[in-house]
Design a protein that fits this description.
This protein has 5 helices and 9 strands; from the N terminus they run ααββαββααβββββ. The longest helix is centred in the first third of the chain and has 10 residues. With about 190 residues, the protein is of the alpha+beta class. The strands form 2 sheets. It has a 7-stranded mixed β-sheet. Strands 4-8 form a two-stranded antiparallel sheet.
Length: about 190
């Protein structure tokens, strides 16, 4: 089952999760504005691994290895991606991504596509402590790769799930803000 707005509504009606959990997920208050649209990530074989570029990373979250996430991806066609920046508000990861699409499957990138974005468009990664969020699916689970750039890249990973209530804020005072990179949605997918 993919995480969609419809799925969250089904959870609400079956009470398999506390009602306040589902209500909070659907009430995300985060707002975005587009920074860059239509960046091209060419077709990829899926064989590129994060470990192959370990020298570019100053830090790789131990959970990345614990969850066994450095696996080959499926071969992918060329895609367009959009970079969105937090404008204001607070939200969980599920709220952040479901605000952009009611179906996570439509916006996820493969790990190889995420790595290619970092290599090709590193200037669009958030600098300093403000990271760039990439939704991905490995197996049947959704994750967020949270990458920020300083004098190298720092990779953090967390599961995207309905009961993860780590809040992220768009209310930053410094010039940098967190960003989100997602697969470009077609007009039919909005």
């Amino acid at each position: 089952m993919t995480m969609t707005a419809k799925y969250l509504e089904e959870l609400r009606t079956t009470e398999s999760e506390p009602l306040e959990t589902i209500t909070a997920l659907q009430a995300g208050k985060i707002k975005f504005y587009s920074v860059i649209e239509n960046l091209l990530i060419e077709s990829l074989s899926g064989k590129m691994l994060i470990a192959d570029f370990a020298s570019r990373f100053h830090f790789i979250d131990p959970d990345f290895r614990l969850y066994d996430l450095d696996q080959p991806s499926l071969e992918t066609d060329a895609i367009l991606v959009d970079v969105k920046e937090f404008k204001s508000g607070n939200a969980t990861l599920a709220q952040i991504f479901l605000r952009l699409s009611d179906d996570l499957e439509k916006i996820v990138l493969t790990p190889a596509q995420i790595l290619r974005f970092c290599l090709k468009f590193s200037k669009h990664l958030s600098q300093g402590d403000c990271g760039t969020f990439f939704p991905t699916r490995i197996g049947k689970k959704y994750y967020c790769f949270y990458i920020y750039s300083d004098d190298g890249w720092y990779l953090h990973v967390t599961r995207i799930k309905s009961n993860n209530f780590d809040y992220w804020s768009g209310d930053f005072k410094d010039p940098g803000r967190p960003r989100v990179v997602i697969k470009r949605l077609t007009a039919e997918e909005f």
